[in-house]
Structure formats: structure tokens, C-alpha cells
Amino acid sequence: MKKAILISYDREDAVAEAVDLCGAAGYNPELIIRQKYLNRPKYGISGGAVESLEEDAKRIDPDVIVFDEMLRPSQNYNLASRLHRNVLDREALILEIFELRATGHESRLQVKLAQMRYEMSRAREKVRLAKMGEQPGFMGIGKFEVDVYYNDIKHRMTSVRSKLAKAGRQRELHRQARRRVGFGTISLAGYTSAGKTTLFNRLTGEAREEDVRPFTTLSTMTRRVGDGPGALLISDTVGFISKLPAYMIEAFKSTLEEMLHTDVILLVVDISDTPEDLEKKFRSCTRTLSELGVPPDKVITALNKSDLVDAAEIRKKTELLGLDGGGNWAVVSATTGQNLEGLMGLARGFISSRGGPGAA
Ligand SMILES: Nc1nc2c(ncn2[C@@H]2O[C@H](COP(=O)(O)OP(=O)(O)OP(=O)(O)O)[C@@H](O)[C@H]2O)c(=O)[nH]1
Ligand SMILES: [Mg+2]
């Protein structure tokens, strides 16, 4: 693993998530610097903090500095030139993970699009700085070249978008074929590492990769669960994470929008998370689902990893999430298989009470 110095917030949940992201990108944080604010204008952190960071960087000699927030190009440049290191902000880090993990044709295109959106969002500031004449040759790029660079990204984006549109049409055809077969359809959703793929494998007998690291799954796969008239089609896909910039969600939108066409969304939640994490991730997921236009009454919540917590704790946590009474949730364990039958029964009942597959 490569060495990193991680700059994050002074909060355990933020640090834990950032450390996981570093690990998924292949970086080991040798030092973690905790800061209350990461939005200072010049470096993101205070001048004093940068000073002591210079010493740390000399001592540790990290491959990168990871900054657990978004950085403007000028801030990134200031930090990088002061520390003589490559600086990855949170978005660049997530993009590195995406690049490592993208396997299928469509997810590779989606990652490319996200990378270009990232470049584009920074090209704007580069162009602005160059035009203001404040920093001609900013980051070694002159005004003319900036325009060329900008147009070049635009062109490449158009080409990737049209390839994505083609992949989308292909998916539409698959969807129509599935609808003709008349199976009820389920999409797995949820925070990264909640256990979607483990549940998928357990239900379908597949062997997709399961891993503690975030963003293990980037591409979508659909398989059948069960035989006969009660058979269902279930899809496993990319997970959510908090503070994902809008354009990253946009890049994966076509994948996520599949959910609008399925009968049931199975929101997988890791019930072994601390109450704070549990609540934060749950809210973040329901927000993302509602932004995608998924009606709340199409969602069943699967409280997963029940093997790791006792009944009393589960009760407390369901209350915390406001799930008591409703009946549109189930406690399961993808690892032990506990109550997976119950969960599928719930999904089938859900679909038939809404007029059968494809009705909603
Ligand atoms: N103890 C226990 N561990 C589980 C359970 N379900 C999943 N896990 C573990 O949780 C980790 C994450 O599981 P995945 O299935 O890869 O999670 P995911 O939601 O697909 O994550 P991404 O693809 O990264 O979005 C793995 O280490 C699994 O072994 C469960 O029911 N009990
Ligand atoms: Mg997965």
C-alpha cells in the first residue's frame, strides 16, 4: 500500500469513513490530522496547520496528501506546491476508487464521465483565473491552451454521453424483455458496505465480490430468485455515500434510475452500525432515493447483519429510524441467511398488493 497523510474532520465517523476510502484506493494513512474546519480560503486548513504539515510531510514522505473535502483548484495548487506532494481531495479520491473498481462497459463509461465532470468543474476556475490575468499560465496552462483543454473535455464528454445513451437503450430492451416474462423486480439500494452484494449472492447463488471496503460494486447485475410463479428478478448495483457531489450521482444516474422501473426497492441497512452512523446513512439513502424520484411506498427496508446485534438493540434501532409498526421492513442476516425467506415473502406480498409485476 502507498503512504498517505489524511486530513479529515475532528469527528470519529468522518475519520472512519475517510480511512476506509483511503484503503479502498490503496493508500494507508500513516498520519491523520483532525481539523474543525476544512474550508479555509487559501489551503483549506489554517496557515499554522500547513506549517506543521510541512514537517510531517518531510518526516513521513507520503505518496499523497488526502484532503477529506472538496478543494478548489487554487487551494489544491497552494497545498501541493507548499508540501511538494500530490494532493487528492475527497472527490479525486472517490474517482480513483471508481477507476480501480469499474469493470463493465457501462460503469467504465460512467466513471469516465464523472472524471470529465471533475476536470470540467476545475477547468472553469482555471479559465476564469487565466482570463482575469491574475495568474497567467496557471498550473502551467496558458489562456489559449485552457480554451483548447476545455473544448477537448467537452468533446470527449459528448462522445461518452452518446455511448452511455446507447448502453441505456440496450438496457431498455432488456427491461422490456423482462417485463414480458412477467417476473416481479427488485432493486437493491443502500449505503456502500451495507451488505447488498452479500444479500444478492445469498439469494441468487451468485459469487459477486463482497468486501468491507467501500464501492466494491460499481456495475449492475440482475439475476432470478426462486422458480415458478413466485420467481423474482433482483438487481445489485452501486452503493451510496454521503457528500457525493451531484455530478457523480449524475454519472451513475442511468444505473440508479433503473430503480424507477422496478416493483420494489430493497433498502439495505447495516444494523450493526453505531446509532449515529445508522441514522446518518439511512437519511442519506432516503434522501438520494427521493432525489431520484423513487416513491417512498415502493421501499422495503432490510435491516441486515442481525447476527451482529441482539434483539433489544435491534428494537431500539428500528425505533430510531422510525420503522416501528409500519410492516415494510424486515430484520435479516445475509451471512447466516436468517429471515431471507421472510424478506422475499414480504416483497412478493408487496408486489401482488400493488396489482402484480410492472403495475406500479
Ligand atoms: N456479519 C455480517 N456481515 C455481513 C452481512 N452482510 C454483509 N456482511 C459483510 O459486510 C461487508 C460488505 O458487504 P458487501 O455485500 O460487499 O456490501 P455492499 O453493500 O455490496 O457494498 P458496496 O458494493 O461496496 O456498495 C462484507 O465484509 C460482508 O462480508 C451480514 O449479514 N452479517
Ligand atoms: Mg456490493
TrEMBL record:
This is GTPase HflX. InterPro entries: G_HFLX_dom, GTP-bd, GTP-bd_M, GTPase_HflX, GTPase_HflX_N, GTPase_HflX_N_sf, P-loop_NTPase. The keyword Nucleotide-binding applies. GTP binds at residues 190-197, 215-219, 236-239, 304-307, 333-335. Gene3D superfamilies: 6.10.250.2860, GTPase HflX, N-terminal domain, P-loop containing nucleotide triphosphate hydrolases. Mg(2+) binds at T197, T217. It is found in: Cytoplasm.
